Amino acid sequence: MMKDITLLLAFTGGMISFFSPCIFPLLPAYTAHLTGGTIKDGRVNAGKNVIVIRSVAFIAGFSIIFVAMGASASALGQFFAEYRIVIEKLSGILVVIFGLQMAGYLKLSFLMMERKITYKTQKTNRKNAITSFIMGIAFGAGWTPCVGLALSSILLMASSSDTVYKGMFMLFVYSLGLGVPFLVLSLAVGYSLKVTKRINKWIPRISLASGWILMFMGILLFTGQMQKITSWLTYITTS
User: Fold this and answer.
1) CA distance 215 to 153
2) How far apart are the C-alpha atoms of 8 and 104, rounded to whole Å?
3) How many CA atoms within 13 Å lie on the side-chain side of 205?
4) What is the helix (H) or strand (E) element at residue 43, kind and residue range?
């Protein structure tokens, strides 16, 4: 088990992705599409068990993609191990740029480009966990720009991991940070859409705070403080 601050940052990165302006507002539509339900009377009309099973399958789908990315990033990091210091500084600069972009201080169009992989489902009510799982894979492989900023930051951190398994675990924790609030709020919109309307009002402030968190992560990487904080936390938890 990795007892360091990187796991907390990875989980936070997942939550940043979920509460981004182009993911969270679409939650009711995502939930309705996944479950085959409809948005009616101020709620998503779908059974609780259906929402849980298909949301978990969706989360498992994109988690597999993200964990695979973590393995690749770590392998690349091991290949360039002798240049670790240079890579960490370049990664820190990039993460700071991502933070400035998310906070709205930068408007770099190339960072807002997106790749989309769509999965066409038949117009039928025979949706199940398998289709939700496939949709999760498609979501993970073609993430939106907002997810890309936080995800790229965590991947840069994973590339500095000591082993491939640590990088994979870091992206697994990132997936939990994205998946847990998705599951909880998917159940919430099954009761009422008011919860999303209330949180939507805070999205601009959440984006600003998320940008500053990414910038903080970038500064830690650039200055080498990430490893020092990790060593300190490991020491106090094992002593």
Assistant:
1) 10
2) 24
3) 5
4) strand 43-45
